Amino acid sequence: MPDVLSVEPLTAPVDATVRPPGSKSITNRALLCAALAPGTSTLTGALFADDTRAMMGAIAALGATVALDEEHHTVTVTGIDPAVTGGAGTIDARQSGTTSRFLLPAAALLAGRTVVDGTEQLRARPFGPVLDALRQIGAEVEELGAPGFLPAAVHGPAHGGPVQVSGHISSQFLSGLLMAGPLMARGLDVSLTSPLVSVPYVEMTKAVMAAFGVTVDGLTVASGGYRATGYAIEPDASAASYFLGAAAITGGRVTVSGLGTESLQGDVRFADVLERMGASVTRTADSLTVRGTGSLQGVDVDMADISDTAQTLAAVAVFADSPTRVRGIGFIRGKETDRVGAVVTELRRAGIDAVEDADGFTIHPGGPRPTRFATYEDHRMAMSLSLIGLRAPGIEIVDPGCVAKTYPAYFTDLAALTR
Ligand SMILES: O=C(O)C1=C[C@@H](OP(=O)(O)O)[C@@H](O)[C@H](O)C1
Ligand SMILES: C=C(OP(=O)(O)O)C(=O)O
Description:
alpha/beta
């Protein structure tokens, strides 16, 4: 991957059918549930990217046997019995929020000490709510760096029972607790102390747990255990947003196969936002087609449920004919970077009138000038801003390799749109 990548403008509207790689979020849930299930599970359609390799490494450190068949997008996992497993040493969650926030409660099941750490970027992201929750349910927790941040050590076994956790910073704390819940002696009964963001991800957690034989009732899960299974992972809906956005801004057509009305991923609702802007959307049980109609209106939209697609919308909004206001996403300042600040800074660099709001941003349409975009080690900055280059000449992306976090082949697949 070069240090800087030039995006070639499309010479004709896109007309393509794509199938993005497996969902990061579903892959990492399925890997963890499989690791906690006695017996062997086979996961098909899995994502192979930095975030999921982080989870594969983490569950192997817990003692699971993990066999990769990358060519066939398949992972085979033989699970552990946490009741007879000791601490897992030091686990490197790399840049992955899901790996780290899901692993801490799972590591708290073990009668031993496990340290969870990651990159400098991950060390800057919040962990206080899950560390505090684990203390409430009987785990010993040491904050080895700044309080509320990684690295942190947990020593179980956590006994479970009633636990309180906040919902407004990240839903991953809740998802992680729920997934460890069935292996706790008292099960788990979670109460939220603040409104939940990213709600569809918690529904996804329950759905994946159900596939592995565990029922969550509200936010309560009984003590029990997972069942190993065969599990098919859908394509990644956040990744799909870039291709759907490309159709909308070029007046072309993109069909995403493998994702439709039956999807477990909230981010498929990005297509609804494009529809509100004037694109035409066709949905089947397992496909989504967006057709650009040649005109896009700005929208005023709350993206608290689907915030990984907010940067995609920012790029699309540049080509609308009225302003777009995105609300409800103040919490994305705590993701890979301050995504609100970063997207506004970069659009302004291209001469676009973009404004930072307390809970989101406002984008006024305009003609972007040739620009070298910074990407802040954030895969979604790189993937989103590249869309601008499909319409405007002279767009360059710094550090395009950062897409490896969730979509290593992104720029190859984007270039294939023009062929
Ligand atoms: O549970 C998940 O798989 C995720 C939840 C969301 O995070 P937050 O709950 O922190 O918003 C999302 O942004 C992230 O990419 C994946
Ligand atoms: C926020 C993201 O990832 P995570 O929180 O899992 O690191 C993302 O993929 O956009």
